[in-house]
């Protein structure tokens, strides 16, 4: 075997073992993603149940406050954490009336009360792209609404624009983006206690699939006697959260992408970095040892041939 073939064989064997180690890392990362999924599943169920219970026990039932509470507490249904999941949900009363559903919206404070304004029908592809581009370049963990401009006509609020910042603490260096929804006249501007949800900014078709699954569930849903339990498919990542407290039902579906979650996890990245470093070092050592052994073998073989040749020459030379 030539030296090139030997080194090529070592590299091939190393690549095969590296591929095997990578597969094991991926399998471990996928199991890690399943555990993360299960944790979020149980946490969301508990949060939904607690928020619905708190809501039903109040004398004055503020639906907007329930919306905001669920949006902030249910990690499976939080738009800020939707990198590996698509979701759709509704909250309905005992008659089957939809109290609210997953959509883009903004909460603002008016007359000592929380108000909710849906932004869903105003969220064009261009607006979504603006917000996505801003989110990617901003340094803040979450985007925040610093002011909301609306038009109030005949008791109906229409969004005109919202300014988004990337920092919890205002400063002169904050990045900001003003998103314009309509050309109507601004009649009111709100600055305090603004929170919002931007739903499905990437126009992911999987959101439509998840919504269809939710719609199918709603067609056959018994609001008077719901005995179904929340379920999680830890193999495929399909999640169903159904919670009933008092006269209110939370019905939500999630598609959790376990493969993408595993591949983009820090767990997988750290293991692959460690594996790559280990294989680079071990392959370099193996190549070095193989080169030394091969060279010694060639040298010994050459020396043996020279000795044999010398011996043959001595035997063939005439005696004096």
Tag the structure with descriptive keywords:
12 strands; 320 residues; 4-stranded antiparallel β-sheet; single chain
How would you characterize the overall build of this protein?
Strands 2-1-12-11-10 form a five-stranded antiparallel beta sheet, with helices on both faces. A four-stranded antiparallel beta sheet has the order 7-6-5-8, with helices on one face. 47% of the residues lie in helices and 23% in strands. The mean pLDDT is 84. The two termini are 44 Å apart. By secondary structure, the chain is α+β, with helices and mostly antiparallel strands. It is built from six helices and twelve strands.
Give the helices and strands, then pairings:
Layout: H1 3-57, H2 63-73, E1 85-93, E2 98-101, E3 105-110, E4 113-118, H3 125-137, E5 144-153, E6 156-165, E7 176-180, E8 188-190, E9 195-197, H4 205-219, E10 231-232, E11 238-245, E12 248-256, H5 258-263, H6 266-316
Antiparallel strand pairs: 1-2, 1-12, 3-4, 3-9, 5-6, 5-8, 6-7, 10-11, 11-12
Helix pairs in contact: 1-2, 1-6
């Amino acid at each position: 075997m030539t030296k090139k073939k030997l080194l090529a064989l070592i590299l091939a064997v190393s690549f095969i073992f590296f591929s095997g180690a990578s597969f094991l890392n991926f399998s471990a990362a996928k199991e890690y993603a399943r555990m993360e999924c299960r944790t979020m599943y149980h946490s969301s169920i508990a949060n939904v149940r607690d928020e619905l219970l708190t809501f039903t026990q109040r004398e004055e039932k503020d639906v907007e406050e329930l919306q905001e509470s669920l949006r902030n507490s249910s990690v499976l249904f939080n738009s800020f954490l939707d990198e590996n999941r698509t979701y759709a949900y509704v909250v309905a009363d005992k008659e089957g009336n939809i109290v609210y559903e997953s959509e883009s919206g903004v909460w603002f404070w008016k007359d000592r009360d929380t108000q909710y304004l849906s932004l869903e029908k105003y969220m064009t592809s261009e607006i979504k792209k603006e917000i996505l581009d801003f989110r990617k370049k901003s340094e803040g963990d979450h985007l925040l609404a610093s002011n909301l401009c609306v038009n109030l006509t005949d008791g109906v609020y229409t969004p005109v624009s919202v300014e988004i910042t990337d920092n919890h603490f205002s400063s002169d260096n904050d990045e900001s983006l003003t998103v314009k929804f309509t050309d109507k006249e601004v009649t009111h501007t709100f600055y305090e206690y603004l929170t919002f949800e931007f739903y499905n900014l990437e126009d992911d078709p999987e959101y439509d699939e998840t919504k269809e699954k939710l719609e199918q569930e709603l067609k056959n849903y018994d609001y008077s006697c719901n005995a179904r339990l929340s379920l999680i498919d830890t193999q495929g990542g399909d999640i169903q959260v159904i919670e009933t407290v008092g006269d209110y039902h939370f019905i939500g579906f999630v598609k959790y992408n376990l493969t993408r979650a595993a591949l983009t996890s820090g767990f997988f990245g750290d293991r692959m970095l460690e594996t790559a470093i280990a294989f680079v070092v071990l392959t370099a050592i193996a190549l070095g040892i193989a080169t030394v052994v091969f060279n010694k073998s060639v040298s010994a073989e050459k020396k043996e041939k020279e000795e044999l040749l010398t011996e043959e020459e001595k035997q063939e030379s005439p005696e004096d």
